[in-house]
Design brief:
Low-confidence stretches: 1-22
Number of helices: 6
Shape: globular
Largest sheet: 11 strands, parallel
Structural class: alpha/beta
Helix content: 10-25%
Strand content: 25-35%
Radius of gyration: 20 Å
Strand order of the largest sheet: 1-2-5-8-11-14-17-20-23-25-26
Distance between the termini: 27 Å
Length: 389
């Protein structure tokens, strides 16, 4: 036990040291090189270069590069600056890392790679196609197959699948945007991560409704990333941890988070939830200037009554509603004592009004908040997280 604790402490201390240096392990590879040098200088052996314009690239499409890979071994793609109009699907189980070229790998606002598509389902409410699923709109999908990627409907969502997807998917300095509309009109996902281990570093996810979906049996981690949306833009059925991220409110419909817990005993005890740590909830820099968002955005609402959302040491601007969390709707609250789990510990800023918080929002003591760690939430210290970025 002592050895495990020492090893965990070493990993975390090393991670803090490396992060303080603002130079991640892939920074030399990600730097944009002059024409006289190979774009792959400083990259791990075997890295594959993708570019829409550079003739030295092996592929002009990210999806083509992914499709060329074998099923199980580990691969790295270096993606040149540019706009990539694609829908990306990662179904292979082997580890995969996508690196966006950038001269500032510690600043997502200076990312130079954008992957985008424009897709929504049932945007015309008079014509509903029951065969379409929210997942069909995703710009990037990380799941073993379509059945696993499905969101589904009702309190339990799509049926449980028994095939696991990518064991270790990482993305650095990518902008992933669903550009279907500039307001919430219908489900339009940027990223669907299901039945996979997924982590993002210095990325930007952007849409308006349902930006990020973390599906069943998915574990997800984001570091120093920005997620933009307006309606239930963090939703899911898996387990997600956001560390030092920005949640950027473009508008306020539904809530920021909408999560489901599981009733299905085949997936084990309910460990599902979203955990937002040392982050910031703010008005998006591209929100319509005339839109009044003051006290308009809820921290979360329960997609089913086993929903869980925990905010830890997070700044909240005045877009946040005084009551924090809200019921699903006035006629269908989905709030059940000792089941629905909404909590805050160490919240601060003009959006935090402790005396106005909803009765079902647990306000955690310092000791209670400190009990939430990566290891306690995931049940282990995930080896698929890059602690040295």
């Amino acid at each position: 036990m002592m050895m495990i604790q020492l090893r965990t402490l070493c990993v975390l201390l090393c991670a803090l040291f490396m992060r303080a240096s603002s130079q991640g392990r892939y920074a030399p590879c990600q730097m944009v090189k002059p024409p006289s040098k190979s774009p792959l200088d400083g990259c791990p052996p075997g890295t594959i270069f993708v570019s829409t314009t550079d003739p030295r690239a092996k592929f002009t499409s990210i999806q083509e590069a992914i499709m060329s890979l074998d099923h199980t071994s580990s691969h790295i793609l270096l993606i040149a600056p540019g706009l990539y109009h694609e829908a990306i699907n990662v179904s292979r189980p082997g580890p995969l890392t996508l690196l966006g070229q950038t001269n500032k790998p510690d600043d997502p606002l200076l990312n130079q790679v954008t992957i985008f598509n424009a897709s929504a389902i049932n945007a015309n409410s008079s014509v509903i196609n029951p065969w379409l699923d929210d997942s069909d709109t995703a710009v990037m999908t990380i799941a073993p197959n379509r059945a696993a990627a499905l969101v589904g409907s009702g309190p339990t969502g799509a049926p449980v699948q028994y095939e696991h997807g990518n064991s270790d998917f990482k993305a650095y300095n990518l902008n992933i945007a669903n550009t279907y509309a500039d307001y919430s009109v219908a489900p339009s996902l940027a990223l669907d991560a299901s039945y996979s281990n997924v982590s993002l570093y210095y990325c930007i996810l952007a849409s308006y409704q349902d930006t990020l979906y973390v599906g069943k049996n998915a574990t997800f981690y984001a570091f120093e990333s920005i997620i933009k949306g307006g309606t239930d833009y963090l939703f899911g059925f898996g387990t997600a941890w956001l560390e030092r991220c920005i949640l950027a409110n473009r508008e306020c419909g539904g809530a920021i988070t909408a999560w489901k817990g599981t009733y299905d005993t085949t997936t084990g005890a309910n460990a599902n939830g979203i955990y937002i740590s040392h982050s910031r909830v703010v008005r998006a820099d591209d929100a319509i200037t005339t839109l009044n968002l003051t006290h308009a955005c809820a921290l979360g609402r329960p997609w089913n009554n086993a929903s869980r959302a925990i905010y830890l040491n997070t700044y909240m601007d005045d877009t946040v509603r005084p009551q924090g969390f809200i019921p699903w709707s006035p006629t269908d609250p989905r709030i059940v004592a000792n089941l629905t789990d909404y909590a805050e510990g160490g919240s601060y800023g003009p959006g935090y009004e402790a005396g106005s918080r909803a009765y079902f929002d647990r306000l955690l003591s310092y000791k209670e908040a400190a009990a939430y760690t990566l290891q306690s939430v995931f049940g282990y210290l995930p080896p698929w997280i890059d602690y040295f970025t």
